[in-house]
Amino acid sequence: MKTLTTPRPPTVRAVPPARPRRGRRPARATAVWILVGPYALFLAVFGLAPAGYALWTSFVHDGSFSGARNWTAVLDDYRLGDAATHVTTYLLLWLPILLLTVLSLAFTLHARPGRTSRALQLVYYLPGAVTGSAAALLWLFMISPDSSPFSPLLKLMDIESATDALSGGSLIALLTVMGVAVHAGGWIVVLYGALNALPKDVLEAAQVDGASAWRTMWHVKLPMVRTYVAFVLISSFASGSQVFVEPTVLTTAAPGQISPTWSVNQLAYVYATQDGDFGKAAALSLAMLAIGLLAAWIVITRTRMYATNSTDSR
Amino acid sequence: MKRWHAAFLAAAMALVLSGCGGTGGGVSSSGGGKGELLVWVDNTRMAAAQQYKKAHPDLKMRIVTIPPDAGYVPTKISLANRTKSGWPDVVFLTNPAEVATLSSEKFGYAAPLDDLVPASVRDGFAPGALDTCTFDGKTYCLRNDIAPTVLWYDATLMTKYGYQVPKTWAEYQQTGLKAAKEHPGVIVGAVNGKYGAGTYFGSSGCPTRDTLSLTKVHIDLTQPNCTRVADLLQPLAEKKAITTVGPIDPAFSKFGKGHKILMLPGPAWFGDFMFAPAFKVPEGRIAAAPMPTWPGESKPYAGQVGGGAFLVSAHAGDRTKDATDLVRWMTTDVGLQARQPTYPAFTAAANKWGEAKSKDPYYASDPMPALTAAAGALRAGFGAVRYEADWQTSFNDTLGKAVDSGGNLRTALDGWQDKLEAAARTSGYTVG
Predict the structure, then answer these.
(1) Which residue, A196, A249, B182, B397, shows the most beta carbons closer than 10 Å to its own?
(2) Which residue of B has its CA nearest to A259?
(3) Higher pLDDT among residues A23 and A6, named by residue
(4) Where in chain B are the domains?
């Protein structure tokens, strides 16, 4: 993944003048601004301004403008290739497994509503209550064969020490399992909520027409919750491509076993904190932002996420 | 029309989400403006700093506890450099290699101490102890404690098996192979990260981190000082007499509990902090011998794994003298250092420290002769480098992997050389 596209700041393309819409009253417009205002302010102060500052920083070296120097230095760094490979492998493993787990469990819960379903929701959600560094510490305990309740399973996988568990391919497998356990629960609850909000008449119509549970799921429910699935994908892609906390905590527990620049975000962090080079850190962070934006853009356009009933998206 | 809405929302979403991946931070304190001496120490050094404060009621002093995590101090100093405020006047390093980062031109944090601490005081440290602090002839830190390696061994097992404590590495290898054959499962060493690289390669004088200046490092693993280590470990790895499990890995305790540690060359602090609390080796078994001697040499040399150091800030201004006095007291006060948990870097303090250690009933025999000799024989050429973390991971990636998989260790040295060079160059060194 050395071919990072040169990211641009989120520019606004030439906007055709807004056509006045019939039936829109000024009071409504005010309400919209009141509702959107705080978020817009938040976005400007904590999103756009830092991103703009990062963009400026990424073109500065030792206090003076340096052109693309930081960007080329980042792309030339031998650690970037390794980090990008790690993160890509992690995403390729984690995203499909996460999505499949979330979808199958949410649909199963929805197909069989009742007390058990509600109890299971909580059970699925529980691992997600322990996140980030706490989760990494908990998992460190779970992967140490001497303390783990799963030690027979670990022995089966030829893991005899935490050193084994954290080296090479087993690290990615571990992060994948961790990632699914931590993230799936929350998304199951979200998706289950979305399924519950589906119009009953449509589902009943499907039932009356003799659609099987499988067909109802595939042809009726899934298309209707696709925007939620898209949201799961975008959020998970963003958090997955920026995986940082888990490998970092595992590193402090077993120094020397995991490279401190294992993931791309960790590399950006090392630039800023250990190399004292904020320019390179900013450049790499913006490149990651660009990739996140691109992925979000693809998912949004492909799923017509913001299409509403009143207007068509294209 | 809707399309750019979508683009904007996507941008907004990605921005908000990208914020989630960041880490919290910020300079926790700023002693700069108020004329207050700001001191950062880890938990272990806290009591001593407080004692100093109590003894100097006129001195305005604020003590902040910092975690011992690798990279913590450079992270905070980097942020302070960015905001140009909040630098501590004195800082303790649990990872002395970080002095290479903090005294670099980019960080410009560590003050040279040559004019502040008299040479007579600096000469009181164990010979070579301040090499870690020294670049281009300037001393940027004072060592609090050092971690010379010795040959720890289980005296009970040695007697039981009828083996002699090896005096040379050839004898060490023979003993290891014999033990592996006669008592499978017994280990004679650990090769993981700094424990492998610092103990074996450090003691042999293999130039993996021989700092010539702040920007120049000598790395040459083709030297006989390096290949002889590979040759030493090769058969031991094949016969599983050495392990790649890290000593701080909880799984290592199974060797100790099962009385499988025949020998373990390792740092001085293994005696008090690993054998009993972590490896669960009972009292009266463990003893220390000097490291074995390398071929062609008349005396043994010690590698290093750890230790700590104190730095004075280049931004301390008129607090520089107070800062230096504190650092000097912390590192050289015999009464204070004698009570410290790990081997003092200041020789007079180490002798005093050893009086209690000699009587420690945990050891099968007095470990001090071996420890004192090791402290006096630190192998030169083991400098503080900015690629310390990569130095460890690349060792595990190459040598560690080869030991695990039965690969050729000499070939693995080539891989390690490449990785070390790459890491050094990325950290701003020219490799010579």
Answers:
(1) B397
(2) B393
(3) A23
(4) 37-145+306-357, 149-304+380-431
| CATH architecture for segment(s) A79-303 | Orthogonal Bundle (1.10)
The closest alpha carbon to B387, from B430, B332, B426, belongs to: B426
8-state DSSP, B208: S
Q: Where are the alpha helices (DSSP H) in B309-346?
A: 320-332, 334-338
List all residues 6 or more positions away from B354 whose beta carbon is below 8 Å from its beta carbon.
B368, B371, B372
Task: For residues B351 and B338, give the distance between their C-alpha atoms in angstroms, rounded to a whole number.
Answer: 8
- The number of beta carbons lying within 10 Å of the beta carbon of residue A45 is 10
When pLDDT is cut at 50, 70 and 90, the band that residue A92 belongs to is very high
Helix (H) or strand (E) holding A289: helix A278-303
- Under an 8 A CB cutoff, do B251 and A163 touch? yes
CATH fold, domain B149-304+380-431, is D-Maltodextrin-Binding Protein; domain 2 (3.40.190)
Tell me, yes or no, if B55 comes closer than 8 A to chain A by beta carbon: no
Considering only CB atoms, B78 lies closest to which of A144, A239, A272, namely A272
Q: Is B78 on the interface with A (CB under 8 A)?
A: yes
Is it the case that residue A181 has pLDDT exceeding 90? Answer: no
- Which of A255, A273, A314 lies closest to B78 in CB terms? A273
Q: How many inter-chain contacts (A to B, CB under 8 Å) are there?
A: 173
Cβ-Cβ contacts under 8 Å, B80 against chain A = none
H and E: helices and strands count for chain B: 19, 15
Nearest CA in chain B to A62: B106
Q: Which helix (H) or strand (E) holds B265?
A: strand B263-267
Distance CA B363, CA B282 (A): 9
Residues from chain B that touch A161, judged by Cβ atoms under 8 A, are 245-246, 249-252
Of B386, B396, B393, B389, the closest CA to residue B425 belongs to: B386
Pairing of strands B61-65, B37-41: parallel
Which chain A residues contact residue B79 at CB under 8 A?
273
* Among candidate residues B316, B303, B261, B251, the one with its CA nearest the CA of residue B286: B261
Minimal CA–CA distance to B122: which of B109, B132, B110? B132
Q: Which residue of A has its CA nearest to B252?
A: A161
Q: Could you say which of B13, B254, B422 has the minimum Cβ distance to residue A296?
A: B13
Residues of A in Cβ contact (< 8 Å) with B422: 78
- What is the least distance, in Å, from the CA of A190 to any CA of chain B? 17
DSSP code for B156: H
State the smallest CA–CA distance between residue B78 and chain A in angstroms. 5
Closest partner residue to A242 among B12, B21, B390, by Cβ?
B21
Q: Determine phi and psi for A60, rounding to 5 degrees.
A: -115, 135
Among A275, A278, A309, the strongest candidate for a mutation testing the B interface, having the largest count of B CBs within 10 A, is A275
The pLDDT of residue B169 is 97
**ipTM value of the model?**
0.83
Note the helical H segments in A197-277.
200-208, 213-215, 222-224, 226-241, 245-253, 264-273
**How distant, in Å, are the alpha carbons of A115, A129, A202, A210 from that of A108?**
14, 22, 18, 19
Closest chain A C-alpha to B196 CA, distance in angstroms: 11
The predicted-structure confidence for B231-285, as pLDDT tens digits, reads as follows 999 999 999 999 999 998 888 989 999 999 999 999 999 999 999 999 999 999 9
Prediction pTM value: 0.85
> B293: which 2 tokens?
């001697």
pLDDT at A119 over 90: no
